[in-house]
Amino acid sequence: MPPPKDVVKIAIQMVGAIPQLIELQQTKPLASVLKDVCDVWSLPNAEHYALQYVDGRQTYITESNRGEIKNGSILRLTTSPDQEAERLYSGIQSNNSDVKTDSLKKLASLSQDVTFAQEFINRNGLKQIFYIVEEGNDTGEMLAHTLKAFMELMEHDFVSWETLSAAFIKKIVSYVNMNAVDASVQQLSLSILENMVPTSRLLFELVKKEVTLDRLLTHLQVTNAQLQLKAMALLIALLLAATDAERREMMDYLREKNIRQFIHKHIIHSSEPLGDEMAHYLYVLQSVSLNLCERRMRTSMDPYSQEQRELLQSLRQTAFESETDGPASNFSTERRRSLCAKEFRKLGFMNNSNPAEDLRRAPPGLLALDNMVYFSRHTPNAYSRFVLENSSREDKHECPFARSSIQLTLILCEILHVGEPCSETAQAFYPMFFGQDHFFEELFCICIQLVNKTWKEMRATQEDFDKVLQVVREQITRTLSLKPTSLELFKTRVNALNYSEILKLRQTERLHQEETLAVPVLELRERLKPELLELIRQQRLLHLCEGTLFRKISSRRRQDKLWYCRLSPNHKVLHYGDVEEGVNSPPIESLPEKIPVADMKMLLVGKECPHTKEKSSGKQNKDVLELAFSVVYDVEEYCLNFIAPTRYEFCLWTDGLNVLLGKEMTSERTQTDLDVLLSMELKLRLLDLENISIPDTPPPIPKPPSNLNFCYDFTHAEQ
C-alpha cells in the first residue's frame, strides 16, 4: 500500500553520526521535526539547527518550500540560517585574513539560498560588504569572494540597486578600469555594473560616464572568453538603456573604432566556438544597429525641406548631368520644369511632376531616399547603367529605379526586422553584418542590381512589378537562410539564384504538392500517418532523454543562470538541476531534482504559465511568451517552469511532454516533421509510378468469367 501523499520517506545525515531514515509528516511543524531529529542524536537547542539538501544548491528547508521534498531525498542537519548568518557576519569582520577569506567564500556559496540571504541582510550584512570593498585594497581572492557574495545577495531583490553608495560604485568602476586586477574580479565588477545600468537613469549615466567605450573595447580584445563576454554584456546593457540620441552617438563611436571588423575576426571567426550568450549579445548589437534606421524609415518626405529636395535633385543630376550641361541653363522655367519631369519619369518615379509624393509613404519613408542617394554616390557607374539602360528600353519593359528602390527598401526592412524590439532570447544574427560598415546600404546596392537583373530575366513589364519584387524577396530570403559570412558571398549566391532557378524550385514544390493531392495518394497518406506519428513520438522522447540546457531569466532579464533537464532512459522520471557555464551534457546522476512522470498533471504554455504572469506584459516579452512552458505536477500542483532557448526546442519539449501525458502533439513542428516524413515515404513508394498519371478512382473490377475451364490440369501433363 503506497504511503499517504503528506508523508515522504527521507534520509537525514550529520557529520560523525549514523544517518536517520524517517517518514516526514508534511503536516507536522518543521520545528517539531527538527526536535525529534536532534533528540535521536542527543543534540540540545534544536532551534539552532536546520535541514538542508545535500545535493544541488543545498537549499535550506523552510515551511514554504518543504512541499518540494520528494521521496528518497537526502537532507543534512546543519546550523540554522540565522546562526550561520551570525557566524559569517562575525567572520567577515575578523582581523585574521584566513578566517575572513574563508568566511567570505562560504558567504558567496550560502548567499544563493533565499532564507540565508534574508537573515544575513537583516543583520545589515550588506553594509559590512560595502565596507570591505570601499576600504579594502585587496584585488585578489578575498575581493572576488566579496563581490560574488554581493552579486548573489542582490539577486534576491531584497535591496534596490539604487541604494548603493557613490563610493562603492566608484570602487567597482575602478576595478574595471584598472589593468593589474585579477580577471575574476573584473568579470564580477562588469556583471555588477551590467545589473545596475537598467535599474535607474542615474546609475546608467554614472556607469556610462565612468566606464568609457574605449575601456570596454579593451576588455573585448582580451583572450579570456568570460571577461570578453561580461564586457559585451555591459556594452549591450548600456546600449539598451540609452536614449535614441545617445544610442546613435555610441554606435557612431563604435563604428569609428571598427568594432564590427574586430567582432567579425576575433569573436565570430575565433578558434573557440561561439556560446549561446555571446550569440544573443551579437544578435542584440545587430538589432540595435539596424534599428538606427527606424527614424528615417518612419519619416515621410517633407516637400518643403531644402535638404531633402537637394538629395532628390542629386539623383537626377548624377544620372543625367551630361545631358543637361550647357544649353539647359538657357531654357525657360517652363521648359526646365518639363525637362526635370521627363528625367524623373526616366528615374522611375510614378509622380514625375512632384517626385516627393512617391516618398510620402512611411515606411520606408526617407530611408528609401537615403538608399538611392547612397547607391548613386558610392556606385555611380552601376547607378548610371541601371537608369540609362532602362531609359532606352521600350516604355512597357523599363524597370522603374525609384519605384523599385522604395519597395525594395520596405522588403529589406521587413526581412531584417528594422523597427522591431529586440528579442530577449534570440541568437540569430547574420555573420556578414559584422564584416561590413553601412551594412543596410551595401545590401541595398546589391539587391537593387538584383532587381534589374531579375526584371530582365523575367522580361517583365510595368504590370509585372509586384511579381518581380516577390521573386526578389524570395531570392533574398533563400540566400540569407544560408547564413553567408560576407556580403561578397551573399552577392555571389543571390545572383546564382536566378529566375530560372526560382522557377525550378517553385515547380518542384508545386509538382510535389499536386502529386500528393491525388485521391489515392491522400488515402495512402492517411494509412501512413499513425506509423510516422509514432516515429515522431519516439524521436521527441529520445530528445528529452538527451536533455537540454535552459536559462533562467530574472526580472532584470539576466540570463547567466543555467539549468539542465532530461528524461530518464525508462521514461519514468524527469531529472533537472543547476549547472555551470560550459557544461553541455551533464550525466543524469549529477542532476539532483526529480519529478516522477506519474506525478505530472498537465502542460501549460505561453500566457498560462505562472512565470510569464509575473512578468510585465509588452512587446519586449512577446518572445518569452512564445518560448515559455510549465509542467504542473503532484497533488499540490507545483510547477516546473521552462523558457526554451529556441522555438525548435520549445516544440520538441512540449511535444515530448504531451506524449508523456498521453496527449496529442500539438506543435507546428509536429506537422512539419510529419509532412517531411510523409513526403519521403510517398516518394519512395511512388518511384515506380514516375510519369504515370494516377487515376482519381480505381479501375473497375472486371466481371467474373462465364466458366473456369481455363485452369491447367497438371495430372495429364505428368502422364
Automatic annotation (TrEMBL):
The keyword Signal does not apply. It comes from the Eukaryota. PROSITE patterns: ELMO (PS51335). Gene3D superfamilies: 6.10.250.810, Leucine-rich Repeat Variant, Pleckstrin-homology domain (PH domain)/Phosphotyrosine-binding domain (PTB). The keyword DNA damage does not apply. One of its GO terms (biological process) is actin filament organization. Residues 307-480 form the ELMO domain. CDD domains: PH_ELMO1_CED-12. Keywords: Apoptosis, Phagocytosis, SH3-binding. One of its GO terms (molecular function) is SH3 domain binding. PANTHER family: ENGULFMENT AND CELL MOTILITY, ENGULFMENT AND CELL MOTILITY PROTEIN 3. Involved in cytoskeletal rearrangements required for phagocytosis of apoptotic cells and cell motility. Acts in association with DOCK1 and CRK. Was initially proposed to be required in complex with DOCK1 to activate Rac Rho small GTPases. May enhance the guanine nucleotide exchange factor (GEF) activity of DOCK1. This is ELMO3 protein. It comes from Lophotis ruficrista. The gene is Elmo3.
